[in-house]
Amino acid sequence: MKTLIKNGTIVTAGDTYKGDILINGEVIQTIGKDLDVEGAEVIDATGMYLMPGGVDAHTHLEMPFMGSTASDDFYTGQRGAAFGGTTTHIDFALMPQGGTLKQGIQNWHEKAKGKTVIDYGFHGALTSPSPEAIQEIPSLVEEGVTSLKIFLAYKGVFMVSDEEFYKALEKARDAGMLVMTHAENGDAIAEIMKKLLDEGKTEPRYHLDAHPAILEAEATGRAVSLAGQTGAPLYVVHVSCEDAAKQIEMGRNKGFKIMGETCTQYMHIFEDDMKVPGHEGAKWACSPAVRTPKDAEYLYRSLQNSTLQVVSTDHAVFWYEGGKDGRQGGKELGKGDFTKIPNGIPGIEDRLYINWDAMVNTGKITENRFVALMSTNPAKIFGLYPKKGTIAVGSDADIVFFDPKKEHTVSASTHHCNIDYNAYEGRKVKGMPVKTMLRGKLIVDNGKFLGEKGSGQFLRRKTNNPVL
Ligand SMILES: [Zn+2]
């Protein structure tokens, strides 16, 4: 089965040019000018940018957390991703408390089974850091899992000690794996939370006070220093603010193997959005907390100058009004106590168009750098390149047809994820994905979903990947 995409403008991390793409089966066979192939199905892409499918390196589908479970499962979350032009994501497989890392991976395979519509991989997550679990780290490579998340936050739940973190860095380094860290000082945050609640400060806005930027910067600096000392590569997840980004800069300037991502919300949602009366602010309770427009400007610069290499989402969705109509508990669980709001925010569907509008339409980021941040860099860093993350001969035909002229108003009433609010409700954007192709097959075509449940493939990832 051959498909020929004609008359589009191909955009990769390196180039923008007019060209035709010939797909044979699941992969790109030829890229050329004025291609003519007998028997091939032709798709006209006049006026479209053809970009590699988005790679979202940070998602949490059907994750049990804070007394509930994320409402997007592998079907609804991946379907939303497909509508948004994302064809690959990497989800965090949390180990059961007291269990093993491999049990975490098995549990996540169970969740994905029969539901997937895009391709996916798993990160391990050292959420129960016994000595046995630290010993177990290198064996994840056999599972095709070559990155491991470690939390310096969430005291009493996921948080590890510096000793455990240091030992895990050494183990991962020797196995050619990449450690990822959630960098916030969990001990100090627990103290602040207690004090705020004692003072009767229970509304969602106090989530901001409990997660100050300085405690993210402190933990980022500590993680960068410990990784630098061991020589292990480190990827700091969801960098939210200038102070934390500066710690990454410091490490990179010293020659440490440090990388980092930010997430869509940190460039578009700010403290003032949470400082609203009532419970509304709970929609944006995520950790680290949202910051200021000034921080966002610093993040844009950091994405431009390669202090940060990736934009992901940390997609972890909990109903705004849960606990009824068959729904799991959601943000309402934190009414009267902000520390019980399930942390997380939607974004897997919105990432490409929200950021295109804010980055490329404004001239802050070129379309090529955009592709690097959304697709190519995460594919390289996490061992999926060049199968994923680019449009090149031999790569999977994961292609987004992106119409730079199409306008859209973001709304929960038209999105496709299983969640009753959209973090970007009411925003007007210009530039939308209109067709999404996964390994040569259209899975979204002008608002119509064509994906088949169970067709997404698990991606075994490489070790010893480049530090960008
Ligand atoms: Zn996360």
Description:
With 468 residues, this protein is α/β, with parallel strands linked by helices. The chain has a domain of 315 residues: Metal-dependent hydrolases (TIM Barrel). Helix content is 29%, strand content 24%. The chain is built from 13 helices and 19 strands. Strands 1, 2, 3, 4, 5, 16, 17, 18 and 19 form a nine-stranded mixed sheet that branches. Strand 1 and strand 2 form a beta hairpin. Helix 4 crosses helix 7 and helix 7 runs parallel beside helix 8. The longest helix has 18 residues. It is globular. The mean pLDDT is 97. Bound molecules: zinc ion. Zinc ion binds next to loops.
Topology, please?
Blueprint: E1 2-11, E2 16-24, E3 27-32, E4 41-44, E5 49-52, E6 54-59, E7 64-65, E8 68-69, H1 74-83, E9 86-94, H2 101-112, E10 119-125, H3 131-136, E11 147-151, H4 162-174, E12 178-182, H5 186-198, H6 206-210, H7 213-230, E13 234-236, H8 242-253, E14 258-263, H9 265-268, H10 271-274, H11 293-304, E15 310-312, H12 351-360, H13 367-381, E16 399-409, E17 428-438, E18 441-445, E19 448-449
Parallel strand pairs: 1-4, 1-5, 6-9, 9-10, 10-11, 11-12, 12-13, 13-14, 14-15
Antiparallel strand pairs: 1-2, 2-3, 5-16, 7-8, 16-17, 17-18, 18-19
Helix pairs in contact: 4-7, 7-8
Summed up, what is this model?
The mean pLDDT is 97. The protein has helices at 74-83, 101-112, 131-136, 162-174, 186-198, 206-210, 213-230, 242-253, 265-268, 271-274, 293-304, 351-360, 367-381, and strands at residues 2-11, 16-24, 27-32, 41-44, 49-52, 54-59, 64-65, 68-69, 86-94, 119-125, 147-151, 178-182, 234-236, 258-263, 310-312, 399-409, 428-438, 441-445, 448-449. It has 13 helices and 19 strands.
